[in-house]
Amino acid sequence: METPFGFLVIDKPTGVTSHDCVNQIRKIFKLKRVGHGGTLDPAVSGVLPIALGNATRLLSLLPSSKEYIGKIQLGQETDTDDLEGKVISRSPWPNLNKFEIEQVLNNFRGSIEQVPPQFSSIHIKGERAYKKARRGETFIIPKKNVTIYKLELLHWDYSQGVIKLKVFCSSGTYIRSLARDIGKKLKCGGTLSQLRRIKALGFSEEQCMPMIFDSSAEEIVKPRVYSPIDSLKHLPKIYLKKEEEEELWKTGRKIIVSNEQYKNPNLTDLENVNETNLILIIGRNGTLYGVGIEESKLLIQPKIVFNAIG
User: Fold this and answer.
1) What residues are paired with 148 via a beta bridge?
2) Rounded to whole angstroms, what are the CA distances from 292 to 13, 226, 262?
3) Which of 11, 20, 41, 81 is catalytic?
């Protein structure tokens, strides 16, 4: 049986961890090598890309931006910056109109600094921050630079003190921190009350399949596997034409190709794709042979080689 090679897009439900989803996929596909792209907290639902087999080596090459729809509950703060935590303060929220909220949101658009939540997976002196927080330790998490490409106000419910937002952001952005900091700016406190990821690593919720954990089901339908070539469409491609080129590539040696073998990506979607000199190498049979580094025009150094020889 051919080993699966590609990406799944799972609609992670609330109440389970990203690791739970990975374990379930291992069982469904009877595969050890499985990895996910971007952890979702148990309380968060939505797009969770999962790599199968050798595609785990390609996770870091996918577009890094993510998009969320979330709700902020004003008037309270918690130690986890969401409703899973302990309430540490309560305050009345101000009588705001949408224009006033937009003025506050302007402080969080573009490149900003934010402090990750105390209950997060950030490493502090070699240990996860959440472990220290659970023990009641006091510690400081350094600020980090993140980018909010788009911050859209979807709804303001004054009666409930709830702001609904759509956030398109760089990898590493904590929406819990954003909720906390917006609440502080409004001088009433805020905590994340609901969150769903609608885009991640170039995949959208329209591509999602539900994650099924019902062990009593006689047969679980395997989710669709997206090919690595389609999933890495933001990268340029080199199409190998000769057997000699394939042999050089498979043995980890540089190859020189022609302009006719080169195809640039067609970027039509709004994605944060960093400029890179990486390039996909496609074999004569149309499959992905690996990823190269373009050292100079049309001189390619192997970086990731699939089906290597020797």
Assistant:
1) 110, 169
2) 37, 21, 13
3) 41
Query: Is 41 assigned a catalytic role?
Result: yes
* Same domain for 196 and 71: yes
Rounded Cα distance between 280 and 299, Å, is 13
Task: Encode pLDDT of 237-254 as tens digits.
Answer: 999 999 999 999 999 999
pLDDT tens-digit profile of 194-221? 999 999 999 999 999 988 776 655 556 6
Helix or strand or coil: residue 133? helix
* Shared-domain flag, residues 183 and 120: yes
Q: Cα–Cα distance between 103 and 100 in angstroms, integer?
A: 5
Take residue 119 and report the two structure tokens written for it.
Answer: 């209950």
CA distance 205 to 66: 11
Nearest to 290 by CA among 234, 230, 235, 249: 249
Number of H helices, E strands in the chain: 6, 20
Residue 130 and residue 73 share a domain: yes
Whether 237 is covered by a domain: the verdict is yes
87 and 154 both lie in a single domain:
yes
Pseudo-torsion of CA 131, 19, 3, 248, nearest 10°? Answer: -40
What b/e string do you get for 23-32 counting C-beta neighbours within 10 Å, with b at 16 or more?
Answer: ebbeebbeee
Residues 77 and 185 in one domain: yes
1: in domain: no
- pTM assigned to the model: 0.90
Q: Where are the alpha helices (DSSP H) in the chain?
A: 18-29, 98-105, 129-134, 175-185, 228-231, 243-250
Count of the separate structural domains present in the chain: 3
Strands (E), 219-298: 237-239, 255-256, 262-263, 278-282, 288-296
Tokens of 59: 């996770």
In DSSP notation, 139-196 reads --PPPEEEEEEEEEEEEEETTTTEEEEEEEE-TT--HHHHHHHHHHHTTS-EEEEEEE
State the amino acid at position 244 in one-letter form. E
